[in-house]
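User: I'm writing a tutorial on reading structure tokens. Could you give me a worked example: one chain, its sequence, then its tokens, then a sentence or two explaining what the tokens reveal?
Assistant: Sure. Here is the example chain.
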Amino acid sequence: MTTTAATTAASAAPAVRHRRAKAPARGRITVNAVMVALILYFLLPFWWLLVASTKDNDALFSTAALWFHSPGSFFTNLQQLFTYNDGEYLRWMGNTAIYAGVSGAGATAVATLAGYAFAKYRFPGRNLLFSSLLGAIMVPATALAIPTYLLLSKVQLTDTMWAVILPSLLNPFGVYLVRVYVQESLPDELLEAARVDGAGELRVLFNVALPTLKPALVTVLLFSMVGTWNNFFLPLVMLNNDKLFPLTVGLQSWYQGALIQSGANALFTLVVVGSLVAILPLIVAFLLLQRYWRGGLTVGSLK
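And here are its predicted structure tokens:
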């Protein structure tokens, strides 16, 4: 009996090992299939944008959507984009760079000071303030656009660059990220050692803390700049002067003009090429700074 059972167990062992080996393989196939689907989902709009930017206005609506028609038209479209209406697109791109640069730098500075204070100082109401800040993450920015417009109209700042920059200076997620990063990567003993050596609080912050926080600062800077670069609703509400438009609102005005003219002008093509050119600075920024912001996100995930 014992011999029979041992023989049965020995014969079943390869089948069990085979089933165990197949289970991880099925899991890897599923994960890879999901990843491929997500890659296609995110890259397909970019591919369409790239292909459509090589077509003239007629070919845009009469040829295959996902394949090239006349690649040489891309440079013609670029020339029209940069010269249309006295270089209006370049002015909008310059405005967008100012909005994104000033707002990104300002939001990073505010998030750094606030996150460092929440992480390293004890003061009354600290937890209540931080909880309120976390609650602000849940509020969609579009819901605050109209109240912000009413506040800025009281001080006559609407239809100015400050109407876009000032509301973008507070980034609640950036404050949260900096606080978590400071807690995980900046030990209190290091700050105490600097204070014992005679360093004041500002010197501790700038000479000891900030060099350690570089990955978190780059991450917050990138997120803030991308958020402002892609912001549409706030500038749409705040600005009436088309000379102050960012790219998002400017391209939307061209699109509305194309709809009114029923495609008689080449504005549809300019909107497509303009959208492609508008995302190139963001791609370059991510490629140059990805090693910093990935480090910031990794440390934040340890919490």
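What the tokens reveal: The chain is about 80% helix and 0% strand. The chain has a mean pLDDT of 86.
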